Amino acid sequence: MVTEVVIEKNESDELPLPRLWRPIFTEIVSAIVKKDYLLTCVTRFNVFISQESADQISDYIEDYGETIVDLPEDTWDSSTFLWMGDRWNVLIDLWTDKEGHSDLVLKAEVKEGSSGYLVVVEMVYVL
C-alpha cells in the first residue's frame, strides 16, 4: 500500500517529499546527470535556475569527484521539505555511481503560483 504524502505548510517539521513533486526532482537530477546544469531539457515543469546556480552545481559536482546518477526510489526515504512562511525549502539526497547514497544534496525552493508550483533550484552541497 502506497502512503500519500500531503503537501503541508508545516514550519516545525521536515517532512518526506510529496509524491506530486517527485517527478519534478527526478527530471531535474536527470538533467544534472546529463550535465545540463541550466536544466534546458526540463520542459514539463515550471523550473528556474540562474546561471550562477548552474555554475555552482557544475563546479561543486566536479570538485566532489564522483559521478552523479539518476535518483533511485530510496532517495525519497530521506529527501525532505519544510515550509518557510512563503515557500518550501527542499533537500534532495543525491546518489553517485560508486557511493550510492552520497553526502551531496540538491537544495531548491518550491513556491505556489497561479499556474501551479515553481521550483527554483539553488545549489548542490555536502550536507
Automatic annotation (TrEMBL):
Designated name of the protein: DUF7668 domain-containing protein
Domain spans labelled DUF7668: 29-127
Any single Pfam family the record assigns to this protein: DUF7668
